[in-house]
Amino acid sequence: MKTLRFLLTALVLGAALAASATTARAESLHAVLLTASPEKGPTDPRLASWEVTLKRVLRFNSYTYQGSDTGTINAGSRESLMIGQGHELFVEAGSSPLSVRIRWTAAGRTFMSTGLVLRPGIPAVLGGPSTGDAPGEVYAVILVVR
Length: 146
Description:
The protein has helices at 2-23, 51-57; strands at 27-37, 62-73, 78-84, 87-93, 99-106, 109-117, 124-130, 138-145. By secondary structure, it is of the alpha+beta class. The strands form 2 sheets. The chain has a 4-stranded antiparallel sheet with strand order 2-1-8-7, covered by helices on one side. Strands 3-4-5-6 form a 4-stranded antiparallel sheet, with no helix packed on it. It is globular, with a radius of gyration of 20 Å.
């Protein structure tokens, strides 16, 4: 009987430790700020690996790299990414580093506040506000967990 109680206790503790080790895993975040334009033109070569996804999701004709930043996030932690042109992403992880709340700001304005469940290697694309520079041109963000 004592052996069975010991085995059950060891099993429960082992499962708890395995679960905490999984949620304690740190994830690397990479965020890219870009502009999307309805004008025909080449896509910036730094965005080439995401061009098909950008065209499928945003449906613009050309994309230009504006800046990027990387960070690390754990379950329950927060990270701030300065992604260029004065834009900043505030990322807050939930019980998993892949379940996040995102707040996208620039010049004291919040452009977006949303929740996402990220998948490693799969880009999340956020469409943003007009750049004010050219008709129809907007900002967008790619967020990837590596």
